[in-house]
Design brief:
- By secondary structure, this protein is of the alpha/beta class.
- Helix content is about 30%, strand content about 25%.
- Strand 4, helix 5 and strand 5 form a beta-alpha-beta unit.
- The strands form 2 sheets. A 7-stranded mixed β-sheet has the order 6-5-4-7-8-10-9, with helices on both faces. A 3-stranded antiparallel β-sheet has the order 1-3-2, with helices on both faces.
- It has one domain: Vaccinia Virus protein VP39 (Rossmann fold), CATH 3.40.50.150.
């Protein structure tokens, strides 16, 4: 079911991209209601729409039929948050969000793989941690930028996804008492993601008993404008091999930065070799 949901979301994005005639800097869609193509729990959809409605990065929304699916289109502008996110000396990747529905599908996959906690690294507005809570997982959000963590705090009225304002490479993960976590790494490998992921993996490797139970999710890219990794895997192959990780699953999902591209973002789910 999750694989079909991801496939249908990718097709929805293609239909939306070809039909969109607005000029918003950032745009995405969320199905208005559960349907055969998008059999999402009604209460989950309510929460996804609430997050988008309350989120100040969006300034407009409207209903639109895309393909055969009734959707709400959300238009936004992330410029001030993007600019603020790059000012920190130890910031590894600027804020650029995945789609809410992609965050939701990614959380479903993590849950299906057996993980109990989501830790959203370089979390931006916290949407992945939020979606982890929506599907019933324990969630934590680690974000270095205070403007973005303040934004997250304002979005915690319905579900607390535990925002932390901290450098993810210096954070004390033992303080979270994690048992079986999955770490979503924010940022492409070629856009600071390698440094961010390496720092987090090193921290997790030092916590007794946690290494063998931890997983990681990497956002890759197939774009020709980025240098290819010699080990492939959408930019993450060398790090995956160096860190003794094995790939469990890869799923392509829409993101803000692939809206005008034919290929979506491959999310690579991996865990330590046991």
């Amino acid at each position: 079911m999750i694989e079909e949901l991801a496939k249908n979301l990718a097709n929805l994005k293609k239909d939306f991209a070809s039909a969109y005639d607005g000029n918003s800097q950032f745009q995405e869609v969320i199905p208005a209601s559960s349907s055969e193509l998008f059999p999402v729990h009604a209460e989950h959809l309510v929460l996804l729409h609430q997050f988008a409605t309350d989120n100040p990065i969006y300034y407009n929304s409207y209903e639109k039929i895309i393909g055969s699916t009734s959707c709400i289109v959300y238009e936004g502008d992330i410029n001030k948050y993007w600019l603020n996110s790059i000012q920190h000396g130890s910031s590894h990747a600027p804020f650029s969000p995945t789609w809410m529905m992609s965050a939701y599908v990614g959380s479903l996959i993590a849950q299906d793989l057996g993980y109990a906690q989501v830790v959203d690294i370089g979390s931006g507005d916290g949407r992945i941690a939020f979606c982890g809570r929506v599907v019933g997982m324990q969630s934590y959000s680690i974000e270095i930028d205070d403007m973005l963590t303040d934004l997250q705090d304002s979005l915690c009225s319905s579900l607390d996804f535990n925002p932390r304002c901290s450098d993810a490479c210096a954070f004390d993960y033992s303080s979270l008492n994690l048992k079986h976590p999955v770490f979503f790494i924010g940022g492409l490998a070629q856009m600071g993601g390698i440094s961010l992921a390496s720092g987090v993996i090193e921290k997790i490797s030092l916590i007794s008993g946690l290494q063998k139970n931890s997983g990681f999710v990497f956002a890759g890219t197939l774009s020709k404008k980025y240098a290819a990794d010699p080990k492939n895997h959408a930019g993450w192959g060398t790090l995956i091999e160096k860190s003794n990780l094995k790939i469990l699953q890869t799923c392509s999902l829409p993101t803000a930065w692939t809206f005008h591209e034919s290929d979506d973002t491959p999310y690579i789910f991996a865990q330590f070799e046991k």
